[in-house]
Write a structure and sequence with these properties.
single chain, 453 residues, Rossmann fold, Helicase, Ruva Protein, domain 3, 5-stranded parallel β-sheet
């Protein structure tokens, strides 16, 4: 196993060389940098296991080195060395992510012991990350189903983004699975032990959004009989997912921007700022940059959210995944003791020809209807809805409230088949691929008055 790599940063050559010498004697591989700017240059080109940096330096100081290191290599530990040891400097460095601090003059035994502990912490964290990756091979990103190139690239992006503790913007059409992507990022991130809070920005009035997100103090308004923590505060240490963030009003955008900038919040009716440590993942089906140019979305908030972008492909862009998804949904919604029906080759091909304006969410609804319409082991072409038979059909978008229920779809489908067979139940059952007793039960269930020929 190769020796751990350490970076020593100090603008005093004698101090820098002395620390480097002691560390090399301790069996470590040591790199040096003569100031903060040089250290950041090293970190931009390679990862090290530990950084020991002087706090007070001309130009880029030790805190700037710490910030750059945590931005570029979040798992690298940093020890700050200072000749101006005080509670304030120690607290500030540790709050920014430093492992610990050393006071000058540096004592050999104290330094080597602290370096060993810092490296042990890093090694333990790396083991946890590797374990989480192994677990994700059976859960995690494998829930993002599909074999298409776009889905493979999406899974790779999720794993990479999960380890970078910064804001993420997920773009994709309605129904593509943006929340599933957000949850997976959280589960694979160092914040996975804390809460994941999802919030739909288009589902509440502005007053309710403020109360839900920020909470309120006792007596803040009529009915506020006790203190209530908001979702942002409850997610401390974890991840907050803003679904359809483009639906936020401009005043709410200002409030969210302040949270992102200051990392603090104030409850409704409160007077004290409350510090918070959360990761923000936002999702939208809109072009937020264009919305900002049109004045409907704040450009500064867009740039705060758009640190990293993940684009979720529409189902129409990965049609080779449709049979895999349908089989998954059929298994998901089948009764535990029932045989899961399989798609015939003809049905699999026909399903690939449909436009799917509702994306994966619509496909799951279709799979549920197919499950209701088939009592056999094979889902045949006859079980498809009429608008799915033709490859050229592109259904218009329909308001969700006007969608018929699954039972209405089955009832109408049985009526159509009975009408086509002039009421002959034997022929109808054959087309439906169910036995006559099952057909009779469905007719009784739906109160269909059908004379048998």
């Amino acid at each position: 196993m190769s020796a751990p790599q350490l970076l020593v940063v100090d603008d005093e050559a004698i101090a820098r060389d002395n620390v480097a010498y002691l560390l090399k004697k301790g069996g470590y591989e040591v790199l040096t940098a003569e100031d903060g700017l040089a250290a950041i240059g090293v970190l931009e080109n390679r990862e090290v296991d530990l950084v020991l940096t002087d706090l007070r330096m001309k130009g880029k100081d030790g805190l700037a080195v710490l910030d750059a290191c945590k931005r570029l290599w979040p798992q690298t530990e940093v020890i700050v060395v200072t000749g101006y040891a005080s509670v304030d400097t120690a607290v500030e460095a540790i709050q920014k992510g430093a492992y610990h601090y050393l006071a000058k003059p540096v004592k050999k035994e104290e330094m080597l012991a602290l370096v060993q502990k810092a490296l042990e912490k890093r090694a333990l964290r790396q083991e946890v990350i590797e374990l989480r990756k192994r677990v994700s091979s059976t859960t995690g990103v494998t829930r993002i189903l599909g074999r298409s190139l776009k889905i493979q690239l999406l899974r790779e992006s999720i794993v990479q983004v999960a380890q970078l503790d910064c804001n993420v913007l997920i773009q994709g059409e309605t129904g593509t699975g943006k929340e599933l992507v957000a949850r997976t990022i959280h589960e694979l991130s160092p914040r996975s032990a804390k809460r994941f809070v999802a919030f739909n920005c288009g589902a509440f009035t502005e007053e309710l959004i403020t109360s839900e997100l920020f909470g309120h103090e006792k007596g803040a308004f009529t009915g506020a009989s006790q203190i209530k923590k908001g979702l942002l505060e409850l997610a401390e240490g974890g991840t907050v997912f803003f679904d359809e963030v483009g639906e936020l009003s401009l005043p709410m955008q200002v409030k969210l921007l302040r949270v992102l900038q200051e990392r603090t919040l104030m409850r409704v009716g409160g007077t004290e700022e409350i510090p918070i440590d959360i990761r923000i993942i936002a999702a939208t089906n809109k072009d937020l940059k264009k919305e900002a140019e049109n004045g409907a979305f704040r450009l500064d908030l867009f740039y705060r959210l758009d640190v990293l972008t993940i684009k979720v492909p529409a189902l129409a862009e990965r049609k080779e995944d449709i049979p895999i998804l349908v089989n998954h949904f059929l298994a998901k919604h089948s009764p535990p003791s029932a045989t899961v029906p399989r798609l015939s080759p003809e049905v699999a091909q026909q399903l690939k020809q449909y436009a799917y304006p509702g994306n994966v969410r619509e496909l799951e609804n279709i799979a549920q209807r197919l499950l209701l319409q088939s009592d056999g082991e094979v889902i045949a072409s006859a079980h498809l809805l009429e608008d799915l038979h033709g490859s050229s059909v592109t259904p218009s978008r329909v308001a969700v409230d006007s969608w018929p229920s699954l039972e209405e779809h089955e009832k109408n489908y049985i009526l159509d088949v009975l009408d086509e067979t002039a009421g002959n139940r034997s022929k109808a059952a054959k087309i439906l691929q169910i036995d006559r007793v099952s057909l009779w039960r469905k007719i009784k269930r739906y109160g269909l008055d059908d004379p048998e020929n």
